[in-house]
Amino acid sequence: MQKRNTQQRRRAIIERLNERGEVAVDELAKYFSTSEVTIRKDLAELENNGLLLRKFGGAVLLPAESSELSNEKLSSRKKAIATLAASLIKDHNRIIVDGGSTTSALLPHILKKLGLVVMTNSLHVANALLEAENEPQVLMTGGTWDAQSHSFQGQMAENMLKAYNFDQAFVGAAGIDVERGTTTFNELVSLSRTMADVSKSLIILAESEKLERKIPNIELPWKSISVLVTDSLIPPEAKKRIEAHGVTVMCAKVSAE
């Protein structure tokens, strides 16, 4: 293929990604007659601009809900799931709220609770809690900012979590595998697993449509999960198979959109 300038090449990469859903560095290098180093720089810049998600050897489409800073209105399903999940939070609980749009939907409910201690790796969640009139005690994990998940990750964040113990951790999921657990596009999974280790109960908030996503990376196995809060559109057979792993499945009543 004839060489293009940088901006033309990057636009073409996005076009191919939208067509295929996934691209590989070596394939792109051959297609554009350039080096793999150049393609990796392209993917890094496109990721920084929020246009894709890098993975080992290539890139995938960025899930719309992976950015908690999106201006899109929260879906009625996410709101219903968050409302049901919030019923598990008692006054004076010590909880973790992971970054993500579904977990962020917990915020209006958290603000009504008294005496909470809330640890988060999300700037969005921390800022909202610091403005709350009920003044929960807010703890930040610190760590390294990860542009893929819009949250802090890394060893420092894990060490901060390990310094405390919690009643509950509320975590989202990019995908759900009925046999294996929750799945993710992001290869950084150790922080979520640390959240599970330091909490008495780990609660996943995820829409039932996440069952349709085929994502290779396992984030949390079912043995680490206490409760899955999803919506009433989950197929009965899938619910039964998840419950067979010892997980409590709570379904928020919603209608098909």
Describe the structure.
The protein has 257 residues and is an alpha/beta fold. It has ten helices and 15 strands. Helix 2 crosses helix 3 and helix 8 runs parallel beside helix 9 (190-197).
Question: What is the compact description of this entry?
Answer:
This protein is α/β, with parallel strands linked by helices. Helices cover 33% and strands 25% of the residues. The N and C termini lie far apart (44 Å).
Which geometry do the CA atoms define?
globular
Helix content estimate: 25-40%
Note the beta-strand portion. Answer: 15-25%
Backbone structural class: alpha/beta
Q: Give the distance, in angstroms, between the N- and C-terminal Cα atoms.
A: 44 Å
Q: Can you list the strand order of the major beta sheet?
A: 6-5-4-9-12-14-15
Count of DSSP helices?
10
Secondary-structure element string: HEHHEEHEHHEHEEEHEEEHEEEHE
The Rg value, from CA coordinates, equals: 19 Å
DSSP strand tally: 15
Poorly predicted runs are 64-73
For the sheet with most strands, the description reads:
7 strands, parallel
Question: Overall pLDDT, averaged?
Answer: 88
